[in-house]
Write a structure and sequence with these properties.
The protein is α+β, with helices and mostly antiparallel strands and 937 residues long. It contains 35 helices and 33 strands. The strands form ten sheets. Strands 12-16-17-19-18 form a five-stranded mixed beta barrel. The chain has a five-stranded parallel β-sheet with strand order 23-26-29-22-30. Strands 7-9-8 form a three-stranded antiparallel β-sheet.
Length: 937
């Protein structure tokens, strides 16, 4: 606890002080703590003003020493009796003092004495700095309140360090204080905004007890008054003594003392505002609900009781149990006063070391660890997304004699069942669900985060068991989490050797923010980026920095780069507005498109990589899989890359079952998963950069256009989700071939030096996303874009919303790439140029009519008029015959021709129409001469 300074420093009637001391001494004969309601009525106000609602015996002794010195200095009492450790009377004198830190004598009644001793460091080196930081926090809070000044938390840290520096050095100038605060911040591991030092010093000058003046050279000097010096040092002594009990308990192995140590911590810890943090949190927890978990910051525990914190790390099961028992004691005490308090779980967060799943080793078994990773899978549950019941305390009843037997269960071990009754030996034993204690349980699998996978190439995972509130937290595959828990060793099954695996029994689960721009950007970085975009060569340098060993692919690089600068989707009037651009690099094998995509994966602030086949079995979206013998819902790359970038190589290998869910993910940013007991919505708000090869690995330029090849692979609803589809062709130009050869040689002789390194690119993307969340399109530019969109619509013969939206997204991304909050004509022209290049490459021609046909195909306008009616007839014929198809081979072409004649379609036209329908992905050939409708999903 913290002692009420006003009651100590403004001493009341000496007789009341003596009476309070006497009553307290009597109350402490059989107790280590006394509450205000134990006091006689005429002493309650004095008790409360002095101590608050209760006082510890150790604090009481410190108080006796303090008031003895105060009375002696004031001359109000001399030689009067006082209460000592024995309970007998003795004489008040200045010899009654505290011992701390190897019995060092602390007489803080004289500021001059401290000043003289601190010059040689004889006093300062014995100070417990953690306690001194707490003492200055308490004193500063009172000084700020009395002066009526408000400050930010970071400024308060600087002010506390300034007080400590002045106390340590007996005064300082402005410059000395700035350097001193910086040095102390580094030494103590505290964060202080040094650019706020002028404001900190301005506040310091106005604090009561701080003397600031100029010397003859007009240099400002700071010094603490004698009164403020004594106040800080006496507060230090009182806090040292009050925490002595915590230190004693924390070094003991006795469980009762361990419980008392945690109870003292919960009672005594106060925040920067002087509030009892954990008492207030318990009050809020029980009033608000429905959660029943008390989160404890490990760093706060370590600052007061480092030995207790160490015990928590090394013997967490015992320590966590003691902490939860301590909470039960606290709940029964004032001010909470619960007669039958509910079960509260204590969850510890902010451990000093954070591991990735791959870093968990056998040395951690039995220890408390903190692991950061991405939820990749959730174990099967009863239609509740993995949440199921766990019998924590199983009660078995003997059906013969009625004896009840309790067996405590562990979630990572087999269920323990008594073989016979403990009382009568009967085997007629049955589990009583009603009498047992059941809690919610969820098992998840956490894999390495993206930054850990970059270095290793593949992801490791670890199984985590979550109970109670942790099990009910709204986390799904793809969510990044921070988990604190105990590493448990489990015997490997059917191995024939004494091998251990491990699982984490979760203690605390924190869902982390996962923005793509969640990367620390320094002011120096910001200045550098603003200068970069002013460079007339910025575009060329940026493109050259993407996969620098690949030459001659400027269009492909720019197309792959732009989506990194996409905006965030949003809802407006219930309508989803997609701002994520997706790009497909589609073309011959060996053209560098995969290398470009992988480089994008490397520089994206948050990304996941996969191939269309995705060997892990989860596919691109999600799937039911088996991990550690558990049926799990495993996330695919789109879920793992939520709010990031999903790089998918060989998209043409995508399995049919992925199709519909991927359609939803590309457009909406989420998809529903309903299978095998799982019924959930998985978020997949990822930008997709994909590559694909045409059938056979290269374009058949003699028989098909690139657009025809595209339609042979994907349906129109799928490929229309991509804003840009860029065909890539093998280079045949001799000059380009020479450039490629030189690039390969430079790569192997380490001569490739891009204008911007990967780290700079990653930070630049993060900064652009963060600095410019929305791009505005000014009215004049809207007019230009509107005119172009009308021309697109005329070319189609109808509106072209997908093409229009694609150009808008690309325009905004180009503006954000140049750090422009408002799009310009140059941004629109760059987007239009890429879109036109796409049409020309897909059509394999610059002919406007051919490009219009491609545009119609992208928009889903394939046929019109009489031709569309004939295609519909053929589709109906195939649909009818497939009802009688038992082999699955489809319908023979002769049967289709005979039926089509009845509808006035001649044989030659049927053959041509079937070829068109095959190119448009409406039908497929199963074997020579047989056609059937294209099957998906």
């Amino acid at each position: 606890m913290e002692i009420g300074e006003d009651g100590i420093n403004n001493l009341p009637n000496p007789e009341l002080i003596k009476e309070l001391a006497k009553v307290l001494e009597e109350k402490f004969q059989h107790s280590d703590r006394v509450f205000v309601f134990n006091m006689p009525d005429h002493l309650k106000d004095l008790f409360k003003d002095t101590f608050g609602t209760y006082v510890e015996k150790s604090t009481f002794k410190a108080w006796v020493s303090h008031v003895s010195n105060e009375f002696q200095e004031s001359g109000e009492i001399s030689g009067e009796p006082h209460i000592g450790n024995s309970g007998k009377t003795s004489t008040l004198s200045t010899d009654f003092h505290l011992a701390n830190k190897a019995s060092t004598d602390f007489h803080f009644k004289s500021g001059n004495e401290w000043k003289e001793n601190s010059k040689s460091g004889s006093k300062w080196k014995e100070i417990d700095i953690q306690v001194m930081l707490k003492a200055t926090r308490k004193v500063l809070h009172e000084l700020l309140e009395s002066s009526g000044r408000n400050t930010k938390d970071a400024e308060r840290v600087g002010l506390r360090l300034a007080l400590i520096y002045l106390l340590q050095n007996n005064g300082a100038t402005d410059e000395e204080l700035k350097k001193g605060v910086k040095s102390l911040a580094e030494e103590f591991g505290l964060k202080v905004r040094l650019n706020s030092m002028d404001k900190i010093l301005s506040t310091l000058r106005h604090l009561p007890g701080v003397k600031a003046g100029f010397d003859s050279l007009n240099i400002r000097h700071y010094e603490l008054s004698n009164e403020l010096r004594i106040k800080i040092l006496n507060t230090y002594v009182l806090l040292s003594q009050a925490e002595e009990g915590i230190r004693k308990y924390s070094t003991s192995g006795d469980r009762e003392e361990l419980i008392q140590a945690f109870a003292n911590f919960f009672r005594d810890y106060v925040d920067d505002n002087g509030k009892s943090k954990y008492i207030d949190e318990l009050r809020r927890l029980l009033a608000v609900g429905p959660g029943r978990s008390l989160f404890v910051d490990f760093s706060e525990l370590n600052s007061i009781a480092p030995a207790l914190a160490e015990k928590l790390l090394n013997t967490p099961e015992v320590a966590i149990s003691a902490a939860e028992d301590a909470v039960q004691i606290i709940l029964k005490e004032p001010p909470l006063l619960f007669e039958e308090p509910p079960k509260i779980r204590v969850c510890f967060v902010n451990l000093p070391t954070t591991l990735s799943p791959r870093e968990v080793r056998s040395e951690h078994v039995g220890k408390l660890v903190q692991v950061r990773g991405v939820i990749s899978a959730i174990a099967e549950g009863e239609r509740t997304n993995g949440v199921k019941g766990f019998i924590e305390r199983a009660v078995f009843v003997c059906k013969d004699c009625g004896n009840e037997m309790v067996r405590l269960q562990r979630p990572y071990e087999n269920f323990i069942v008594p073989q016979k009754c403990d009382a009568c030996g009967s085997r007629n034993v049955e589990l009583s669900i009603e009498k047992s204690r059941i809690v919610d349980m969820r098992e998840v699998f956490v894999q390495d985060p993206a930054d850990a996978m970059h270095a290793a190439g593949t992801a490791s995972y670890i199984r985590v068991i979550l109970l109670d509130d942790n099990a009910r937290m709204d986390v799904n595959p793809g969510d990044e989490v921070l988990i604190t828990g105990i590493v448990r060793g489990i015997m490997a099954k059917k191995t024939g050797v004494p091998a251990l695996g491990w699982v984490i029994e979760g203690n605390a689960l924190v869902k982390l923010t996962k923005d793509i721009e969640d990367l620390e950007i320094t002011p120096e970085d910001e200045r550098k980026f603003k200068e970069m975009v002013k460079d007339p060569e910025f575009d060329r340098k940026l493109i050259q920095s993407i996969a620098p060993d690949i030459v001659g692919r400027e269009v492909e690089k720019k197309a792959a780069l732009l989506p990194l600068f996409s905006g965030e989707d949003y809802e407006i009037s219930g309508v989803h507005v997609r701002k994520r651009s997706h790009v497909l690099l589609f073309g011959d094998a060996g053209t560098g498109k995969s290398a470009i995509a992988r480089y994008i994966y490397e520089i994206a602030p948050r990304a996941a990589y996969s191939t269309g086949t995705h060997a892990s079995g989860a596919g691109l979206t999600a799937a039911i899989d088996s991990m550690d013998g558990k049926r799990v819902l495993k996330a695919g790359v789109l879920v793992l890359a939520d709010r990031g970038v999903a790089v998918i190589d060989e998209l043409d290998k995508m399995r049919d079952e992925e199709y519909q869910r991927m359609l939803d993910a590309l457009e909406q940013g989420w998809f529903n998963f309903n299978k095998a007991g799982f019924n959930t919505r998985l978020m997949a708000r990822a930008v997709v950069i994909a590559t694909a090869n045409p059938p056979g690995g290269e374009f058949d330029t003699y028989n098909y256009t690139p657009f025809d090849e595209l339609k042979r692979l994907f349906d129109q609803p799928f490929y229309s989700r991509f804003d840009l589809i860029i065909p890539t062709f093998r280079d045949k130009d001799e000059k380009v071939l020479e450039d490629i050869a030189e690039a390969v040689l430079n790569k192997h002789t380490e001569k490739v030096k891009p204008p911007y390194d990967p780290e700079t690119l990653t930070k630049f993307v993060a900064y652009a996303r963060k600095a410019i969340p929305r791009v505005r399109i000014p009215e004049p530019l809207k007019g230009v874009m509107k005119k172009h969109m009308v021309e697109l619509a005329k070319a189609l013969g109808s509106a072209a919303p997908r093409a229009m939206e694609a150009i808008i997204r690309l325009t905004e991304a180009h503006a954000r790439m140049h750090l422009r909050e408002e799009a310009t004509l140059a941004d629109f022209l760059a987007a239009k140029e890429l879109f036109e290049e796409m049409l020309a490459r897909l059509a394999a021609s610059d002919d406007e009519e051919k490009k219009k046909e491609v545009l119609k195909g992208l928009a889903g306008v394939v046929w019109s008029g009489e031709k569309k009616q004939k295609v519909d007839k053929l589709w109906s014929i195939l649909k009818y015959y497939e009802a009688f198809d038992e082999t699955g081979d489809g319908v023979h072409v002769n049967d289709i021709i005979e039926e089509a004649k009845q509808h006035g379609i001649p044989k030659e036209e049927v053959i041509l129409l079937l070829e068109d329908m095959e190119r448009e992905n409406m039908v497929e050939r199963t074997k020579p001469g047989f056609y059937r409708l294209r099957r998906r999903g």
